[in-house]
Design brief:
There is one protein chain. This protein is mainly alpha-helical and 158 residues long. The protein folds into two domains: 3-74, no CATH class; 81-134. It has helices at 14-21, 28-37, 46-74, 81-86, 95-112, 116-134, 149-156, and strands at residues 3-6, 10-13. The protein has a two-stranded antiparallel sheet with strand order 1-2. The longest helix is centred in the middle third of the chain and has 29 residues, at 46-74.
Length: 158
């Protein structure tokens, strides 16, 4: 077990650092910088580590909330946008308008199809439309790029 000395005076054991932060810095300078970055004045007690953990978690939570808000504001989720893009139509988000535009385009494209492969492709697009437009009343599941808290700590603290 190693010890970390902060400000040349206060010592924290690696096991205590790990128990509070879930990670052990590679050297004492990193722990000292973390205290400085999060404006925690060391006193040499475990309470310092608890305050550091809370400050790190608060910073992480704020960043995650901002990231989620930005994702929700900047990218409206339209479940059928990919389907419409396959036939050259940009989705508006209006269910009726987009559904009618899709059906009209498929009808025109199907009339011009001359081989079985094209007809099969349009049939598969119709099947995909049944799924995409059928799910439109449910909230879309978004893939999340929200970082893991411990990854955040490794990347931003130590």
């Amino acid at each position: 077990m190693s010890n970390f000395t902060v400000n040349g005076v206060y010592t924290y054991s690696s096991s205590n650092v790990y128990s509070y932060l879930g990670i052990v810095p590679s050297n004492q300078r990193q722990l000292q910088e973390a205290f400085r970055e999060y404006h925690i004045t060391p006193t040499g007690t475990d309470w310092d580590l608890k305050r550091l953990k809370n400050a790190i978690y608060e910073d992480y939570s704020t960043q995650v909330k901002e990231q989620i808000e930005n994702q929700n504001q900047n990218t409206p989720v339209i479940p059928w946008s990919g389907l419409l893009a396959q036939i050259g139509i940009q989705a508006t988000g209006d269910y009726e308008k987009d559904y009618n535009a899709f059906n009209n385009a498929i009808k025109l494209l199907s009339q011009s199809a001359v081989d079985g492969q094209a007809m099969s492709y349009f049939a598969s697009l119709r099947s995909e439309a049944d799924i995409a437009f059928g799910l439109s009343n449910r909230p879309a599941e978004q893939s999340s790029n929200v970082p893991n808290f411990y990854d955040f700590m490794e990347d931003n603290v130590f």
